[in-house]
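W.,

You were right to be curious about this one. When I first looked at the sequence I had no strong expectations either way, so I just let the prediction run and decided to look at it fresh. Below is the sequence, 374 residues in total, followed by the output.
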Amino acid sequence: MRASIAQNPWRLMLAVNAVVVAGVFIHKIFLQPYVPYIHLLVNYQFGFIKRALIGALVGLFTAKVPVWLVFALGGAVWLLTLGLFVELFRRTFGFADRNMPLFTFIAGSPFFFKNFMHSLGHFDIYGCLLAIVLLLVPARSVLFVVLAALFSVILILIHHIHLLMYVPTIIVIVAARHYLVHGLNRLNLTIGILSVASVGALFFAAQFWGTMPIPEADFVQYLKGRMADPSRTNLLSFSYIWYQPLSKEIADTWARMPSNILGVPVFALLIWLHTPLWRYFAESIRALASETHRRLVVAALVGVSLAYLVMFAIVFDYSRWMSNWAVCMFLILHVVRMLPAARQTPPIPSEDRTTNVFGWIVTLYPRVGIVRPF
């Protein structure tokens, strides 16, 4: 058995990844460096405001919100996302031994589920979850476009930054799974244009007219009334974000830029450690049967990356953005594999020494972080 593990250690890496995830969860629960609790309290009590959908839904079930609900809700969404991703990988690639390195580099990446566990309670994972759903459901009719638009609306109501974070990837999924397969006609083109316009209008409404209309002191007092333990006022320290204009967010981001930019070499190192995965990705694009599809995929990768570049310039949670960018790349790889191919893509070499070393480092690296690496 030891010889078998030495020759093909990828399943052992997955087991170690599970232990690392458990460690990240324990760290999150007991140390609680930051608990994104306030988002469960904010709702539409005072009219339409940004970042309020999750709190409004929670308010349908309970008037007093306990802190543990952050971890219960976040953990449930995390498990659901993991389960759906496993099903997506099974459909796209399968779980034969030759695909274990690919699964390890994706599911075991510190950019993916380990970092979603570290950022438990944040809103990022909802974009990933709904994008995976769109990769799993049938895309045969124009209802798929409508569903994607509905998901995009939900994401922007959760947090308007999803317009840059996951909506571009959703657009790529819709374009590849519906429009490239069925072509353009009057109905789906009209619905597509209306969907983009509606999502864009909602974003601008949330960004520029979604601020809290009452004084901050009154807002905080209302939030205390929704807390199961009103004495934990430290959890309300981020109430100012419902008043902060875009100009202030950009100013804060650029003020932090000199220190945050120091993390870029770490991000570059982590990306480099995924080199076997990126080579597989590039080979999958080259294997596509259509030159047009190859060019569109490259354009999609550039477009999604540019959206993240804009996000880097306006909001300073760099580690989260870097992690979600990588997740979007992982999801687009599944999109590529759904397109017609002229030949099979060779699997990641499981016995290559460098690939194994990179796989172990990626496995043992526990997370990327929220603002700065690790």
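Here's what jumped out at me. The chain has 18 helices and no strands. And, maybe more interesting for your project: The chain has a mean pLDDT of 94.

Coffee later to discuss?

I.
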